Amino acid sequence: MKLLETNITQTINEDYLIETLNLDNKTMLELGCGKAIMTRKIANNGINRKVIACEVDENQHKLNLALNEKNIEFKLCGAENIDVEDNSIDIVFMFKSFHHIPAEFMNKALDEIKRVLKPSGFAYISEPLHQGAQNELVAMFHNEEEVRKKAFEAIKNSVDTNKFKLFKEIFFQTEVYYENFNDFENKQMNVTYNEVSITDELKSKIKEKFDSYNNGDEITLLKPFRVDILQKIV
């Protein structure tokens, strides 16, 4: 298993990658579903699919419940304490959320994922890589290098200790478009998860970095990801 991959040649939308899996007639679990954007795509793009979608934010959970999606059951719980029966899930999904689990609970979360998976079931864990121009910009005000390393180490340890078998590791990149710096600021800097107060001085440095890529004009940056597909070892 590799933390990073510098030679990524596959540029795709992750939606395409997900739909290469056999998801029809499956019961799936998404941990850290957020606004349930990916949840709804998975639930409604096939036949006889059920998704149990978990979120820890109470306000977001209430908003999700109001969606009233017939193929989705929303639950308020975290990955370290999943409110789902043993051996009941075909596939577990985590999209850019594993590194948000507190480090002290990461191993517990993997234990929980194994508990709820059916024998030989799969966990699909997608994590952003700490590399590339897009990451360099965001890291100036929201640096996740250490938590991403810890997330990788926990996932790798679950394979090394035979909790899971590494079925496949996939590296890919997605395109992220910005019309200008204001567009970048709205999409990346003015979001609720940023814990750093962005001063005028820091904002100026970020803008200078952004402008260095394409003279401040519209730009498409590549955001790299690693997907670890783990199979439960019975």
Automatic annotation (TrEMBL):
Keywords: Methyltransferase, Transferase. GO terms for molecular function: rRNA (adenine-N6,N6-)-dimethyltransferase activity. It holds the Pfam family Methyltransf_11. Residues 29-125 form the Methyltransferase type domain. InterPro entries: Diverse_substrate_MTase (IPR051052), Methyltransf_11 (IPR013216), rRNA_Ade_Mease_Trfase_CS (IPR020596), SAM-dependent_MTases_sf (IPR029063). The keyword Thylakoid does not apply. It comes from the Bacteria. SUPFAM superfamilies: S-adenosyl-L-methionine-dependent methyltransferases. Belongs to the methyltransferase superfamily. PANTHER family: METHYLTRANSF_11 DOMAIN-CONTAINING PROTEIN, METHYLTRANSFERASE TYPE 11 DOMAIN-CONTAINING PROTEIN. This is SAM-dependent methyltransferase. It comes from Malaciobacter molluscorum LMG 25693.
